[in-house]
Design brief:
alpha/beta, about 35% helix, about 15% strand, four-stranded mixed sheet, 13 helices, binds pyridoxal-5'-phosphate
C-alpha cells in the first residue's frame, strides 16, 4: 500500500507562474494534493522538480548491494532507451527491426548456451525471469499432458521438483495448478542432490528445475549430476523427465567464467533455460529470456500467431504490449562488449566479491557462508554461531544504511530458517574503491556497537529487510 504523505483537503488552485523561480512558485511553497488528481494543469518543470526531489528519498541504487538487477549503464544505453520509448514489442509489423533484433538475441543466447539448433531454435524475450519461468513451466506441463493423454492415462496431478527456488516457481505452481515438490535446504545440503530428486520423481513429474545461482546462497546446483541421475531413472523405470534450468543470473556468468561447466543444452535432457537480461545480462530493468533446446520442445498449442509483415510471427508471452528498449539495450551490450567484455566484467565482479569476503572473514565476528568462489559474484556470512557480539545482522544492516548501503539480512528458507545471513552482490558499476569504502563502514559500524552494545536487537520486520531476490 502506498504511504499517505501530506494528504491535503483539496486543491488550493495554486497556479504555477511562468518564469518564476521553481522553489518560489506557489506550487512549491504551498504544496499540492498528492492523492487526488489536481483540477488545474501545472508547468512541466515544476512537476519534474517536485518528483525529482521526492525520488531522492529512494535508496541510491549504486549502494544497493541487495539486488541482482543491473543499475549502471553506458550513456549509449540511456540514449537507446530514449530512442525506443515508443517501441511496442508486440507490434512486430510496425517495428520489424526491433522484432528482428529480438530474434538475433535469441540466437545469440541459444548459441551461448550450446543449443544444437542455435540458429533455428525458438525462444523469446519476457519482462524478466519470472515470466520466462512461467512460460518454461507451461511448456513442461503441456508436453507432459500430451504424453499422458497419448497413453490414455490421467493428467490431472502434475508435479515439479526443485530445490530452494526463487518465488517465481511458487507462483508458477500456484497459478497453474502444479504441485511443487521442493527439496528443503538443510545444514550441509545447500543444493539439490540427485538422490533427493530421484526420490520425488513419478509418472506425474512434469520436470525438474535446478537453479544456476540460487538467490539465497549464490551457489550453482549440479545440473549435470541431476541430468545423469534422470538418465539412469529412464533406463531403470522408463520415466523420461525433462529439465528446465533457472539460470536467471548464472546464464550470463557461467558461459564466460566456467565454460567447461556443463549446465546447458550440452546436456540433452535440458529442454529450456530462463535468464534475466536485466541481471548479469547487463540490460536495464524489464527484460528476461527463455530459450528452448529446439523447436519441438515448445508445444505448438502455446504459440499464438501475430500478423507480421503479411506473414505470421509466432509469439508466446503472458503480456501483450511490452516496451522494446530493454531488448535493444540487451543487443547493444552483446555487440558492444562481446564475449571478451562480458568475461572481463564478470571477472572483475568476482574479484571484488572475493575481496569483500576475505575482509569480512578477517574481522573475526563472522563465518563466511559463501566466499565468492564458484557461483555468483557475491559473498554471504553469518555471525559466528554461539557468539553474541552486541549486535545482530539486522542491526548491522540498519546501521550501514546510515551511510547509504543497502545490504540484505534474512533467514534462510525451510529447514534452515534459524540461520540469519547477510549477503552482498557485486554488479557491473562497482569498483575496488567502493569495496574499500564498504569495508571501512562495516568496521566503523562494529566499533560503534562495541561501544554501544544493542540490548534489544532489531527483528527482521523492524529492520525492513531489503528484498533479497
Ligand atoms: C531473480 C531471479 C528470478 C526472478 O527473476 P526476475 O527477472 O526478477 O523476474 C528467478 N529465479 C532466480 C534464480 C532469480 O535469481
Amino acid at each position: 500500500m502506498p504511504l499517505q504523505f501530506f494528504k491535503r483537503k483539496g486543491d488550493n488552485d495554486l497556479k504555477s507562474v511562468p518564469g518564476a523561480d521553481i522553489y518560489t512558485s506557489p506550487y512549491m511553497k504551498e504544496g499540492i494534493p498528492l492523492n487526488t488528481m489536481p483540477e488545474k494543469s501545472r508547468l512541466p518543470e515544476n512537476v519534474y522538480a517536485l518528483l525529482k526531489d521526492e525520488l531522492l528519498m529512494d535508496g541510491n541504487s549504486k549502494q544497493n548491494l541487495a539486488t541482482f538487477c543491473q543499475t549502471w549503464m553506458d550513456e549509449e544505453v540511456h540514449k537507446l532507451m530514449d530512442d525506443c520509448i515508443d517501441k511496442n514489442m508486440i507490434d512486430k509489423d510496425e517495428y520489424p527491426q526491433t522484432a528482428a533484433i529480438e530474434a538475433r538475441c535469441v540466437s545469440i543466447l541459444a548459441d551461448l548456451w550450446n543449443s544444437p539448433e542455435a540458429a533455428t531454435t525458438i525462444g523469446c524475450s519476457t519482462t524478466g525471469s519470472s515470466e520466462a519461468a512461467m512460460l518454461g513451466g507451461l511448456a513442461l506441463k503441456w508436453q507432459w499432458r500430451k504424453k499422458r493423454q497419448a497413453l490414455d492415462k490421467p493428467a490431472d496431478k502434475p508435479n515439479l521438483i526443485c530445490g530452494a527456488v526463487q518465488i517465481c516457481w511458487h507462483k508458477f505452481a500456484r497459478y497453474f495448478d502444479v504441485e511443487l515438490r521442493e527439496v528443503p535446504l538443510e545444514e550441509g545440503k545447500l543444493t539439490l542432490t540427485p538422490e533427493d530428486v530421484i526420490a520425488r520423481c513419478d509418472e506425474n513429474t512434469i520436470g525438474v528445475v535446478p537453479t544456476l545461482g540460487i538467490t539465497f546462497t549464490c551457489l550453482y546446483e549440479d545440473v549435470k549430476a541431476i541430468s545423469q541421475a534422470l538418465d539412469k531413472l529412464q533406463k531403470d523405470k522408463g520415466l523420461d523427465i525433462p529439465i528446465h534450468v533457472d539460470a536467471a543470473s548464472g546464464a550470463f556468468i557461467a558461459p564466460f567464467l566456467t565454460p567447461e561447466l556443463e549446465w546447458d543444452f550440452r546436456l540433452p535432457r535440458v529442454k529450456s533455460i530462463n535468464a534475466s537480461g536485466h541481471k548479469y545480462g547487463l540490460a536495464p530493468l524489464g527484460v528476461g529470456w527463455v530459450v528452448w533446446r529446439d523447436k519441438s520442445d515448445l508445444p505448438e498449442e502455446l504459440i499464438f500467431n501475430v500478423n507480421y509483415l503479411g506473414g505470421n510471427m509466432p509469439t508466446f508471452a503472458l503480456n501483450f504490449s511490452r516496451p522494446g528498449g530493454q531488448i535493444i539495450a540487451q543487443y547493444y551490450n552483446f555487440l558492444r562488449l562481446g564475449k571478451e567484455g562480458y568475461r572481463e566484467i564478470m571477472q572483475a565482479n568476482m574479484s571484488h566479491a572475493q575481496y569483500i569476503a576475505d575482509a569480512i572473514k578477517s574481522l573475526g565476528y563472522f563465518e563466511l557462508f559463501y566466499d565468492g568462489h564458484g557461483g555468483l559474484p557475491g559473498a554471504s556470512w553469518r555471525l559466528k554461531p554461539g557468539t553474541n557480539p552486541g549486535f545482530s545482522l539486522y542491526d548491522l544492516s540498519d546501521r550501514l544504511r546510515m551511510r547509504g548501503w543497502q545490504i540484505a539480512a534474512y533467514p534462510l528458507p525451510s529447514k534452515m530458517d534459524d540461520v540469519v545471513i547477510q549477503r552482498v552482490l557485486v554488479r557491473h558499476g562497482f569498483s575496488r574503491d567502493m569495496a574499500d569504502l564498504l569495508i571501512a563502514d562495516i568496521k566503523r559500524a562494529i566499533d560503534y556497537f562495541v561501544k554501544h552494545p544493542i540490548t534489544v536487537p532489531l527483528t527482521r520486520e523492524e529492520a525492513g529487510g531489503y528484498a533479497h531476490n
